[in-house]
């Protein structure tokens, strides 16, 4: 196995565990969790926002730590933090405990991404780096897709499911410890914040708006499907399989950017994400339309995160962990703000207004032009 393949496979698995299980599976199991702990839409939104808040804090720390102590230790730490958070979710007796555990689990995703970008930059040939990064990033989709059949097999047993996820996270920590390089940048880079030029500011705006809009399904997809179609958790699990399976297309984001450019790729998948969100949440939707909408959303979301990854890494080629951090941080800042706002709008005005407003919000991210051309070998 080549170095690119080894790092790509390890990163793919790490991202699947941290993003798919520790962060986004919460929305899948939320209807059952809500039923047992009596949360309500507004409280659910606040708790979901806590996951994204943990990500915001962790990804800044991760970029700094990766440059100080290297990719391997930070990646191992990310997987262990995911395990701790998911154990907390599995044992949560009330909303406060659950909120704390969700915050910890969500922070693992922030820890996971920067060390993988640094490992790729250090050990993978230049002409393979963007494609390897895009493949690693698509691990989110596998984690989401796998959580769907698990929900089908464990109807109502969300505590047992999260306990199983935690075990997988511990195994992934051991794999990362053996297979990732101990990269480390020069000391002079440790305390220097990068210059925020116009291109970086546009990335910040676009990622924030896309992240805020995406909470319509990541945090409330299960509740929307339950409300519109009267689904049980097993049916929602099938929706999650559709979202995750389509998201595997995110592995090709590097190829799409190379062929069509960042700007066109960005606009196209913002449009598909918004259409997918509306298809799941509009009044009168059907089961087939909901599944198609979930697939559109899942594929578009992961492709968009790949766009922001490539955008950030190419904007700061000498500091890939920091470049990735800026884009992914702003996605999470948007999600932190978006989840409670969506829950409040849904409680106050109903799901139709909430979904429509967030679909428009997602499209508005395209107004931030990418401002650069990326060519991949």
Walk me through what this model shows.
It is a single chain. This protein has 377 residues and is an all-alpha fold. Helices cover 82% and strands 0% of the residues. The chain has 15 helices and no strands. Helix 1 runs parallel beside helix 4 (71-90), helix 11 packs across helix 13 and helix 12 (253-281) runs antiparallel to helix 13 (287-315). The protein is globular, with a radius of gyration of 19 Å. The two termini are 21 Å apart.
Write the layout of secondary structure elements.
Blueprint: H1 3-23, H2 25-37, H3 41-69, H4 71-90, H5 95-123, H6 126-137, H7 139-153, H8 158-179, H9 198-218, H10 221-229, H11 233-247, H12 253-281, H13 287-315, H14 320-349, H15 351-364
Number of helices: 15
Tell me the series of helices and strands, N- to C-terminal.
HHHHHHHHHHHHHHH
What ranges have pLDDT less than 50 throughout 5 or more consecutive residues? Answer: none
In percent, how helical is the residue content? over 70%
What general form does the structure show?
Answer: globular
Strand-residue proportion: under 5%
Please give the radius of gyration in angstroms.
19 Å
Quantity of strands, as a count:
0
Instruction: Characterize the biggest β-sheet.
Output: none
Mean pLDDT: 83
Report how far the terminal alpha carbons are from each other: 21 Å
- Broad structural category: mainly alpha
């Amino acid at each position: 196995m080549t170095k690119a393949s080894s790092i790509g496979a390890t990163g793919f698995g790490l991202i699947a565990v941290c993003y798919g299980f520790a962060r986004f599976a919460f929305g899948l199991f939320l209807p059952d969790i809500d039923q047992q702990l009596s949360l309500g839409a507004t409280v659910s939104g606040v708790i979901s926002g806590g996951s994204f808040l943990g990500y915001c804090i962790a990804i800044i720390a991760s970029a700094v730590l990766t440059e100080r102590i290297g990719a391997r230790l930070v990646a191992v730490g990310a997987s262990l933090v995911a395990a701790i958070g998911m154990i907390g979710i599995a044992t949560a007796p009330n909303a406060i405990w659950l909120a704390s555990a969700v915050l910890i689990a969500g922070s693992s995703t922030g820890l996971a991404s920067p060390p993988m970008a640094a490992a790729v930059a250090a050990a993978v040939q230049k002409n393979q780096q963007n494609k390897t990064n895009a493949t690693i990033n698509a691990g989110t989709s596998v984690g989401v897709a796998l959580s769907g059949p698990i929900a089908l097999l464990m109807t109502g047993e969300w505590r047992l499911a999260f306990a199983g996820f935690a075990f997988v996270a511990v195994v992934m920590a051991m794999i990362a410890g053996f297979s990732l390089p101990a990269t480390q940048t020069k000391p002079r880079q440790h305390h220097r914040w990068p210059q925020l030029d116009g291109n970086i500011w546009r990335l910040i705006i676009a990622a924030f708006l896309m992240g805020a809009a995406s909470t319509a399904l990541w945090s409330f997809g299960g509740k929307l499907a339950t409300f519109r179609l009267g689904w049980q958790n097993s049916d929602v699990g099938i929706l999650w399989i559709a979202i995750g399976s389509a998201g595997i297309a995110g592995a090709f984001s590097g190829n799409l950017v190379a062929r069509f450019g960042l700007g066109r790729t960005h606009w196209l998948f913002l449009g598909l994400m918004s259409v997918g969100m509306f298809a799941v949440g509009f009044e009168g939707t059907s089961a087939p339309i909901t599944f198609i909408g979930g697939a559109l959303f899942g594929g578009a979301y992961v492709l968009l995160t790949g766009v922001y990854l490539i955008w950030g890494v190419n904007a700061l080629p000498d500091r890939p962990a920091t470049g990735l951090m800026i884009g992914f941080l702003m996605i999470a800042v948007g999600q932190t703000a978006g989840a409670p706002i969506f829950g409040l709008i849904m409680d106050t005005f109903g799901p139709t207004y909430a979904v429509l407003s967030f679909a428009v919000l997602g499209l508005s991210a395209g107004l931030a032009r990418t401002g650069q051309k990326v060519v991949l070998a």
